[in-house]
Write a structure and sequence with these properties.
Number of helices: 2
Strand content: 25-35%
CATH architecture: Roll
Strand order of the largest sheet: 2-1-5-3-4
Number of domains: 1
Radius of gyration: 12 Å
Shape: globular
Largest sheet: 5 strands, mixed
Distance between the termini: 41 Å
CATH topology: Ubiquitin-like (UB roll)
Length: 78
């Protein structure tokens, strides 16, 4: 199945705005993140948040065809 990956902030600068990713049916968010970390070395050493279809969710969420997974750095400030 195909899902869309969207990147924000410094991730967008290093990887690009978005990409389509082919994954096995029934893949979990955790498996997708592992696959992305294998593909993009910069994700291995940085922390980031992950959302599915605009909502933060747990790593064991099962993805469906057409889901959008967003990666973005945690917000900081004061």
């Amino acid at each position: 199945m195909r899902i869309e990956i969207k990147y924000y902030a410094w991730l967008r600068e290093k990887i690009g705005a978005k990409e389509l990713l082919e994954v096995e049916d029934g893949s979990t968010l955790n498996k997708v993140v592992e696959k992305l970390m294998e593909k993009h070395d910069c994700l291995r050493s940085e922390s980031f948040l992950v959302a599915v279809n605009g909502r933060l969710t747990n790593p064991y969420t099962t993805l469906k065809e057409g889901d959008a997974v967003s990666l973005f750095p945690p917000a900081g400030g004061g």
